[in-house]
Amino acid sequence: MKIAMLLSGGVDSSVALSLLKKEGHILEAFYIKIWLEDELSYLGNCPWQEDISYAQKVCKDLNVTLNIIPLQKEYWDLIVSYTLDQIKQGYTPSPDIMCNSQIKFGCFYDTLNKTNKSFDKIATGHYARCDSINGHYVLKKSIDTIKDQTYFLSRLTQEQLSRALFPIGHMTKTQVRAYAKKENLATYNRKDSQGICFLGKIKFHDFIKHHIGVHSGPLIELETQKQVGTHEGFWFYTIGQRKGIGLSGGPWYVVAKEPKSNTVFISKKYFSPEKKRDRFFVNNLFWISGETPEDKILETLNVKVRHGEQSYACKFIKQENKSAQVILDGCDQGLAPGQFAVFYKKDICLGSGVIANEF
Q1: Where would I find the H helices in the chain?
Q2: Which of 352, 229, 243 is nearest to 287 (CA)?
Q3: 192, part of any domain
Q4: Can you say whether residue 213 is alpha, beta or left, with left for phi > 0 and alpha for psi between -120 and 50 degrees?
Q5: What is the span of the domain harbouring residue 326?
Q6: How many other CB atoms sit within 10 Å of the CB of residue 18?
Q7: Residues 157, 27 within the same domain
Q8: How far apart, in Å, are the Cα atoms of 284 and each of 73, 291, 356?
Q9: Do residues 141 and 261 share a domain?
Q10: Shortest CA distance to 343 belongs to which of 316, 318, 325, 317?
Q11: Angstrom distances, CA of residue 276 to CA of 24, 165, 246, 269, 332
């Protein structure tokens, strides 16, 4: 096949490229440049140059052409603006989910379509699998349950999946590292990137401070409604947060935010038995199959409320207007409006919705 390989400069996409090369495909590599250079010059170093240097070394060793595709404007318009808007409203955004659906499998697809180049597949280094069953595409978890990245791919359409290829979905991270070392890939011992994709080594707090600023507001103890301190802006906090509150006599936890009055509510009794945090609403539901389940109540699903290995069995009760109630078979102390809840049936990722609130 003729395959466009998205390279990040990390070990995962490097191994994916090497595997495809060994299989004999016709390959061309692409690095999507999304770094916000104005932010980087103001807040810190420019990590994309290091990423590109690694990508160049890998491509040179494998004799694959590397193209650099600038999508900074698209990234700002679609991802950064969304992130800042969600934070200003008091929500906890998931920019990496939006990046995959709108940039890597969206704008990048569109960019290729505008050129004279055509590719059978677009490959990435995600830990995920995709199967085709009678022309219907199914997104499946990686065999590495810890590194599995289907959470971040839960808004991909059938059309996007029809062109997607995940060469390392059948491997564990340990196997990926071992393969990279055996093949002497330049990235074999490079550390994995952490945090939000467009920030690199920049602290999220510094990025938010730069764009939204600081504005003093009260820290209110939820149970007594008494002010026990001050903060620099509700946008620096998320539900369930413990670190960074800066008060003695704790531990204190963020339990609620009130954007209109710039108030942050905190409590020492976050884990009290009566605060089960086992249910919430989701809206803006999206199903990868393109079809909404017919049953009003689904009881054989699992759900992840953040990226990671942990999931819960749940009851899913459909409401009107692409919303639903979700009742967990367990409790989660970090449910935050704005985050995505991603639904599974066994190892198949069905889709996702945005957490609205507890009820």
Answers
A1: 11-22, 37-43, 48-62, 72-75, 81-88, 95-99, 108-114, 158-162, 173-182, 204-212
A2: 352
A3: no
A4: left
A5: 279-357
A6: 21
A7: yes
A8: 25, 14, 9
A9: no
A10: 316
A11: 54, 40, 26, 12, 8
Does 14 share its domain with 81? yes
Structure tokens at 71: 């999508």
- pLDDT, one tens digit per residue, over 82-115 is 999 999 999 999 999 999 999 999 999 999 888 7
Q: Quick one: which of 238, 235, 269, 264 has its CA closest to 252? A: 269
CATH number of the domain enclosing 257: 2.30.30.280
Q: What is the spatial distance between Cα 34 and Cα 103, in angstroms, rounded to a whole number?
A: 9
Structure-block tokens of residue 86:
């969600």
Residue 7 lies in a domain: yes
Q: Is the pLDDT of residue 249 over 60?
A: yes
> Are 20 and 128 in the same domain?
yes
Residues 237 and 114 in one domain: no
Residue 135 has pLDDT above 90, yes or no: no
Q: Are strands 340-345 and 297-304 parallel, antiparallel or unpaired?
A: antiparallel
Q: Which residues contact residue 77 at a Cβ distance below 8 angstroms, ignoring those fewer than 6 apart?
A: none
Is 72 a domain residue?
A: yes
Most distant pair of Cα atoms in the chain: their distance: 68
- Give per-residue pLDDT as tens, 197-236: 556 666 778 888 988 999 999 999 999 999 999 999 999 9
Closest CA to 91 of 352, 353, 340: 340
- pLDDT attached to residue 191: 86
Q: What is the pLDDT of residues 274-283, one digit of tens each?
A: 777 899 999 9
Residues 161 and 236 in one domain: no
Same domain for 164 and 70: yes
Domain count, the chain: 3
Averaged confidence pLDDT in the chain:
90
Q: Catalytic site residues?
A: 99, 197
What is the spatial distance between Cα 342 and Cα 319, in angstroms, rounded to a whole number? 17
151 with 219, same domain: the answer is no
Confirm whether 165 is domain-assigned.
Answer: yes
Report DSSP letters for 95-153, one per residue: HHHHHIIIIIIIIHHHHHHHSS---SEEE---SEEEEEETTEEEEEE-S-TTT--GGGG
CATH code where residue 166 lies? 3.40.50.620
